[in-house]
Specification:
18 helices; 5-stranded antiparallel β-sheet; Beta-Lactamase; 5 domains; Helix Hairpins
Length: 638
């Protein structure tokens, strides 16, 4: 072996022993030598790797770029450095660093490139993990909108990032500039917290919330956290730096304040609800006592006709009071759930006022109160429901009377101002305190629920007024100068376009009674059924009773009634199904069938109509309504 070949063999043996992948190319850039480490790492053979075959071991996404950089360096005869993913013998890819440099002869002739490939996968993964960690940290800071700061405690200089400067609205260079931004009321607390956190021995955790004053004068809430670095290398501990974060917590503070206000309102509403329920129990028990007393008087049967008549009138009054309370509750429930539908028509406002005045005049007169009514000289026409509008003004008059002492004065005034009807109900009664004025229309707002109240009611009348007025497109407001100064309620309603009233409807002809009627009363409440049957019998009718659906069908088949007063909520067979079956039987198909029930929602009435009922009455029903039904019922062919 000649010395040149011996030297070359020695160099290649050395290259094979080095734990790196060494390579060599000719002047054209084709690889002429790869050390044993390359073949061991990649699993390629010489035939596969030499020339440009080595590029096939690089990741498909890296091949073109790696070849381009290598060939460009070979052409320009310059050093190069590149990183790419190299496929291992088992098919996995690892990051590798490839470095090369040109080689020349002593005369400057270009011989090609030499270089080495090093496995850097672990370093690359560590770099990527560190980069990812930094990205996550930065993202976390940005997501939390947290700013960072560093204080050199020897100089007091403050270094901060962009978020810190955004939060504070300015660059803060040192403590004096910082304290100039902090709200004066919070400066002492911040100074004390910093002093405690930077004391050399046993520094305290730094966590504080304070306000800063923005350039426009607005306030922002800041949460700051940090800790100091203590140098304990010398004979005396020394605090050298102070690092931490700040965050703008204004939104959180505002939310907390709003939550506290909401909790306070909920607690207040809960208290008012409890007071309302107590008032409801009180108001329902009150009429029951005289009714029970009246029943006992009638049971004793003294024979005093005048006493019995007084008892009867008293019981009717108390029953009427209970019915009024229940109707108020049902109205409020229907309105709250959007179940009330207005029967809209063109209404003369004076007519609604007249009905309200007529309904309240007895109570007002009983209290020796003076009622002054000042109507607009012309007619004011509004679009709305006459019954509900009358209810609005009746509730306001009733409210004024209850809270005005004996001999007091109530004024009802109607005006027409720029397309708007304005109705005012003013009294010289007890008035409304300033803290209650904004709450008078709220549900359960009867705050003056002390035991000395002389007036009755549930305190929901004004809530009904507000909602009914709003359903008519209007608004209502309460005014008072305070307790002892009386109060005024003002209703605003839009005036309908045009002022013509609809044509008056003809008066109904008097109802002519066609004689003795056969009436079937069906109710699973035996007392209700028996008492109604007794009343109908006393007015000259032939009456039978049934206490469930099956019994009703059996009695009706034999009795062939002219009128059936039928409860809906019954065991075995409900009233809807009983009505359907009665309509299918020849002997009862033509009878008048009336639902007489405690179910009074619009859905209940719709179902009654679908089942075949002629009418739907809600308990308790006034005797006059029953008499009208009896008069309208036709005598069946028997």
């Amino acid at each position: 072996m000649n010395p040149l070949h011996e030297s070359e063999a020695r160099i290649r043996a050395f290259a094979d022993a080095v734990p790196a992948m060494l390579w060599e190319t000719d002047p054209t850039g084709h690889c002429t030598f790869l050390s044993r480490e390359w073949y061991s790492f990649t699993g390629q053979t010489e035939a596969e790797a030499l020339g440009l075959g080595w590029t096939s071991a690089t990741h498909p996404d890296d091949q073109a770029e790696a070849a381009r950089i290598f060939l460009r360096a070979n052409t320009s005869r310059e050093e190069f450095r590149l990183e790419y993913r190299l496929r291992g013998a088992r098919g996995e890819y690892r990051w590798a660093l490839d470095v090369g440099r040109p080689r020349f002869t002593a005369t400057g002739e270009y011989l090609g490139m030499v270089g080495a490939v090093i496995d850097i996968d672990e370093r690359k993964q560590a770099e990527e993990a560190f980069t990812a960690s930094e990205v996550r940290r930065q993202l976390a800071l940005e997501a939390a909108e947290v700013g960072m700061w560093h204080v050199d405690l020897a100089t007091g200089a403050i270094q901060s990032d962009a978020r810190f400067r955004t939060i504070f609205g300015a660059a803060v260079a040192d403590y004096p500039e910082l304290f100039a931004i902090i709200h004066p009321g919070d400066v002492p607390a911040v100074q004390e917290a910093i002093a405690a956190a930077t004391r050399p021995d046993d520094p305290a955790p730094y966590a504080i919330e304070y306000r800063i004053v923005q350039p426009d004068g607005s306030l922002r809430w800041i949460a700051a956290k940090g800790r100091s670095h203590i140098d304990a290398s010398g004979s005396i501990n020394r605090a050298v730096s102070f690092d931490g974060t700040v965050a703008d917590i204004t939104d959180r503070k505002n939310a907390e304040e709003e939550r506290e206000r909401l909790v306070g309102r909920l607690q207040e509403q809960d208290q008012r609800k409890n007071e309302f329920l107590a008032t409801l129990a009180h108001e329902l028990r009150n009429p029951l006592a005289p009714i029970r007393n009246g029943l006992q008087i009638m049971r004793l049967g003294t024979g005093d006709a005048q006493a019995i008549e007084r008892v009867r009138e008293m019981m009717e009054r108390q029953l009427g009071h209970m019915v009024h309370l229940i109707e108020d509750l049902l109205d409020l429930s229907r309105i709250s759930r959007g179940k009330i539908e207005l029967r809209s028509e063109r209404v003369d406002l004076a007519q609604a006022i007249a009905q309200a005045v007529e309904a309240n005049r007895p109570a007002i007169s009983k209290c020796d109160q003076e009622l002054l009514v000042d109507l607009f000289p012309g007619r004011i026409i509004v679009q709305g429901d006459l019954t509900r509008l009358a209810q609005v003004f009746s509730n306001l008059l009733n409210n004024a009377s209850k809270f005005t002492g004996r001999g007091g004065r109530i004024e009802l005034t109607v005006r027409h101002v720029e397309g708007e009807a304005i109705v005012s109900v003013r009294d010289n009664g007890i008035g409304i305190s300033a803290h209650m004025l904004p709450l008078v229309f709220d549900m359960f707002s009867q705050a003056e629920s002390n035991l000395e109240r002389s007036h009755g009611g549930l305190g929901i009348g004004l809530s009904i007024v507000k909602r009914l007025v709003e359903m008519h497109g209007g608004a209502v407001e309460a005014r008072s100068e305070g307790l002892g100064s009386g109060s005024e309620f003002v209703v605003h309603l839009p005036v309908a376009s045009g002022m013509a009233m609809p044509a008056a409807t003809d008066q109904e002809e008097p109802i002519a009674d066609s004689g003795r009627k056969r009436i079937l009363v069906v109710d699973d409440n035996r007392d209700a059924a028996d008492s109604l049957a007794m009343m109908l019998t006393m007015t000259g009718n032939h009456t039978l009773t049934a206490y469930d659906g099956f019994e009703a069908l059996d009695v009706a088949a034999r009795f062939k009634p002219d009128l059936v007063l039928l409860d809906i909520g019954m065991p075995k067979v409900n009233g809807y199904e009983v009505c359907r079956r009665l309509r299918q039987e020849a002997g009862t198909s033509g009878a008048m069938i009336v639902a007489l029930t405690g179910w009074g929602q619009e859905e209940d009435k719709r179902r009654s109509l679908e089942a075949g009922f002629d009418a739907h009455l809600v308990k308790p029903v006034l005797p006059g309504a029953i008499d009208a039904l009896v008069a309208h019922a036709s005598v069946a062919d028997r």
